[in-house]
Every structure is written in C-alpha cells, then in structure tokens.
Amino acid sequence: MEGKELATKIAAILDAKRGRDIDIISLRDLTIVADYFVVCTAMSSLQARALADEVEEQLEAEGIDLIRHDGRREATWIVMDYGHVIVHIFDPDQRQFYNIERLWADTDNMIRYSTPD
C-alpha cells in the first residue's frame, strides 16, 4: 500500500481514535521527502501517544512497518515516517505555531479528511 491509499487509511485510523482537524497534503510535485503528509491535532499528550500507537499497531498488523519516529516522549509533535507518507500529530499550540499546512499546502494539494458516510 502506497501513496494516497496509505495516507487515507492513516487519516481514517486517526479519525476513529478522535484525532481532530485531519488534513492530507499531497507533496508529490513539491519535494522528494514524501508523497503525502497526514496532519492531525491531539488534545493532550496522552491522546497524541494513543493516536501514534493506534496508527503503528494497525499498520503493523497489515505488514506496514514504521521506518522511524520522533517526539513520543514529549508528545507535543509526534512524527511517524512510513516512507511515502509522513504523519504529524500535534498538540494545538504546536500545530498553530508550526502551521505546516501553510508551508506545503495550496488549494490543489490539500485534502481535509472527513469521516466517510
């Protein structure tokens, strides 16, 4: 599973665990860092860790390994690298301060995730 399918799956996992303001940003034509960012807000460090754990556990169960991660100890900004997709789980203050959507997104490559009907 690669690219948009993986990003959408991660967004669904975050949504099911009550992550907030989930965005998928397509970076395909902008950088070689990754094809997609999935950005989410957690309302506490406990929730941030729970979101990261849930993503890791569900993807691992499907044979998708986490390449590297950072930030779980402080849990104000957790980054999870899945190669083509990088997950950012922020607390509200860090998300507002870094505002990575502003850096990477425009109307053509930003997708606001919403729960499927």
Largest sheet: 6 strands, mixed
Order of strands across the biggest sheet? Answer: 3-4-5-2-1-6
Stretches with pLDDT under 50, minimum 5 residues: none
* % residues in beta strands: 25-35%
Order of helices and strands: HEEHEEEHHE
Q: Summarize the amount of helix as a percent range.
A: 25-40%
How many helix segments? 4
Oligomer: single chain
Rg value: 13 Å
Number of strands: 6
Shape: globular
What class do helices, strands and sheet pairing give?
alpha+beta
* Global mean pLDDT: 89
User: Span between N and C termini?
Assistant: 23 Å
What's the structural blueprint in terms of helices and strands?
Blueprint: H1 3-16, E1 20-26, E2 36-41, H2 45-61, E3 68-70, E4 77-81, E5 85-90, H3 92-98, H4 100-104, E6 110-112
Can you describe what's shown?
The protein has helices at 3-16, 45-61, 92-98, 100-104; strands spanning 20-26, 36-41, 68-70, 77-81, 85-90, 110-112. It has a six-stranded mixed beta sheet. The two termini are 23 Å apart. The longest helix is centred in the middle third of the chain and has 17 residues, at 45-61. The chain is globular, with a radius of gyration of 13 Å. The model has no long low-confidence stretch (mean pLDDT 89). It is built from four helices and six strands, in the order αββαβββααβ. By secondary structure, the protein is an alpha+beta fold.
